[in-house]
Amino acid sequence: MIGERRAIEIIRGRLSKMKDAPIPFGDDVSAFSISKNELVVLKTDMLVRETDVPPGMSCYQAARKAIVMNVSDFAAKGVKPTAALVALGLPRELTIKEVEDIGAGLNDGAREYGAYVLGGDTGEARDLIISVSLSGTAKKDRVMLRSGAKPGDLVAVTGTFGKTVAGLELLCGGFKSPLSIREVLVDSVLTPHARLKEGLALSQTGAVTAAIDSSDGLAWSLHEIASASNVGFLLDELPIAKEVQKFAEINAVDPVGLTLYGGEEYELVLTLKPTHVEQAERAVEKVGGKLSVIGRVAAQKKAVLKTGDIRRVIEPRGYEHFKEIQNVGHDFSN
Amino acid sequence: MIGERRAIEIIRGRLSKMKDAPIPFGDDVSAFSISKNELVVLKTDMLVRETDVPPGMSCYQAARKAIVMNVSDFAAKGVKPTAALVALGLPRELTIKEVEDIGAGLNDGAREYGAYVLGGDTGEARDLIISVSLSGTAKKDRVMLRSGAKPGDLVAVTGTFGKTVAGLELLCGGFKSPLSIREVLVDSVLTPHARLKEGLALSQTGAVTAAIDSSDGLAWSLHEIASASNVGFLLDELPIAKEVQKFAEINAVDPVGLTLYGGEEYELVLTLKPTHVEQAERAVEKVGGKLSVIGRVAAQKKAVLKTGDIRRVIEPRGYEHFKEIQNVGHDFSN
User: Fold this and answer.
1) Does B29 touch chain A (CB under 8 A)?
2) Of chain A residues 1-20, which have a CB less than 8 A from chain B?
3) Cα gap B201→B205, rounded to integer Å
4) Taking CB atoms and an 8 Å cutoff, what residues of chain A touch B42?
5) Mapped to the 3 state alphabet, what secondary structure does A219-243 carry?
6) What is the rounded distance in angstroms from the CA atom of residue B217 to the CA atom of residue B165?
């Protein structure tokens, strides 16, 4: 089998490039210009039941998630989504109740973020496929790209990490947890939330030099910014969720690994001008969120976590075990 | 199994309606307003190999067709496509050559109509899935809807019908044809073309009162306009392709059925103000096409073909045999 990243490279190699494309190849969203400073912003991402829907996730939750995972990319770029279209592949065995739940999940996912599902297409397919395309407009100079991080910038995140991996392990079986934390962990998988308010607020501050969502895990997100901005990272705080710390203790697994090498979580990972950090923090607090600084951008092109006297290299990878049963999709944005 | 049209109804029933949506529920494309008279126009349609790709169609052709079938809806509305995004589900057994061909087919399909593939997403899937979303901008008052046909308007089409059904029958086996017409018929399936130039030219004339593409066949297209415009049709010409006439003779099948009840063909079906017919014809000729008047809009809500003394009711259905092996997707545009 050809790897997905290789498949994307091959396809990209066959695509003609739009002249003066306002958002470069390989960022989280695509766009075209409609005036000097105004863009139509676009994103598409597909959910396939066999590879993307873990045990215990309902049709409603899968449909809602298919919308949320697209909204998260808009959030990371600071773009408000306006309309979603949905192409559905429906297997024969689907019940009326399941189709109703898909409709409700799509609608709730979109309305939660102010967007509408305007239309789409259905056809028969072997497996349930929910392919969402999201669109909206944005000011070009407000869009937060992956590529502007500079040495000395601070690294910040909008929340804690590791919950989805722990939640997935619980859903897939073989791990244990007290009820008190089980719900939080499992819920992070079944009902993810996009940091749209935070992203929109941050894009107005001018504080952000690079941004991405953490849908492929914290480590991978850092490496994507590193690669697009030609920098490295030195983290001195690990944004580990307290439930993940507990899960790791109980199950005797490495909490650092759970936190760095996650996936299917939708926090924002940002780099900030050192002069504008407080402004960014205030903007996020104003919309009910919290920004945590976890390190800084380094000139040396590697990513390192240094806690106390322990230095640990942050590898460019996502969640390995889950990859065997679950497929992390990849962009070939132009 | 729930029928596709029923599935769409169910999903539609769960969707909140955008206030002042500029294009009504159920038309070929969706849109949102960006200024008083300017729209962002959107369409998504998914191709699934098992149900939508006939024997003999290559990966290149399938990818190209996935773009063209979306462009055809833009053509029917008179909207220029600017950007395509593609969500791909790739089965494990796909070769590098096949992935290259998919990239090339996507690009060629888009460039042929002036659009660019700006990005997308890939993931693993059991079957090859090519989900395309197309976008562009348009003047609201130039978009040709399904809903404006009035009794007395003339019905016109941009080409001849029946070739794709004959071509599909040839590809699926069991029918015969001389080589002289085989290529035309099979090519209509493998390398479809959207009538974009014609649609764009027509939208500028102000002559068109309703429009749709014929992707579900001529009969179905007429019934869609009839239902959206609350009218009926009386056809006095059958736009049968000469190759289809020959195919029907050789194989002793009904040429009228082949012409009316087709599918996967991308002509435009239009209704025209009787005062503006010549203007519309000239506009289409100017871009190298040909418009043929085949009947008129009737007040009585049924569709009838009257050739000589024979009256035949045009049923609201597409290609039946092909439906068993091939799935015609349906819109739930909002």
Assistant:
1) yes
2) 1-2, 4, 7-8, 10-18
3) 7
4) 83, 85, 118-119, 133, 135
5) HHHHHHHHHHHCCEEEECCCCECHH
6) 9
User: Per residue of chain A (334 residues), what is the pLDDT tens digit?
Assistant: 677 888 999 999 999 999 989 998 889 999 999 999 999 999 999 999 998 999 999 999 999 999 999 999 999 999 999 999 999 999 999 999 999 999 999 999 999 999 999 999 999 899 999 999 999 999 999 999 999 999 999 999 999 999 999 999 999 988 999 999 999 999 999 999 999 999 999 999 999 999 999 999 999 999 999 999 999 999 999 999 999 999 999 999 999 999 999 999 999 999 999 999 999 999 999 999 999 999 999 999 999 999 889 999 999 988 754 344 344 445 565 4
What residues in A contact B137, CB-CB < 8 Å? 34, 40
| CB-count burial class (<10 Å; 0-12, 13-18, 19+) for A25 | middle
Q: State the first-to-last Cα distance of chain B, in angstroms, to the nearest integer.
A: 24
DSSP A140: G
- Measured in residues, chain A has a length of 334
Tokens of B330: 């349906």
Residue of chain A whose Cα is closest to the Cα of B329: A123
Distances in whole angstroms, Cα of residue A32 to Cα of each of A74, A81, A96, A125, B83? 15, 15, 39, 32, 7
Place of tokens 């969120």: A289
**A45 has a chain B CB within 8 A of its CB:** yes
Residue numbers of A between 256 and 275 with CB closer than 8 Å to B: none
B251 and chain A: CB distance < 8 Å anywhere?
no
Note whether B40 contacts A83, CB cutoff 8 Å. Answer: yes
First to last CA, chain A: 24
Q: At residue B288, what is the residue type? A: G
Cβ of B103 within 8 Å of Cβ of A331? The answer is: no
What is the b/e burial string over A86-121, where b = at least 16 CB atoms within 10 angstroms of the residue's CB? bbbbbeeebeeebbbbbbbbbbbbbeebebbbbbbb
Contact A292, A237 (CB under 8 A): yes
Q: pTM of the predicted model, to two decimals?
A: 0.95
B211: Cβ contacts below 8 Å, ≥ 6 apart? B76, B77, B78, B144, B145, B146, B199, B202, B225, B268, B269, B270, B271
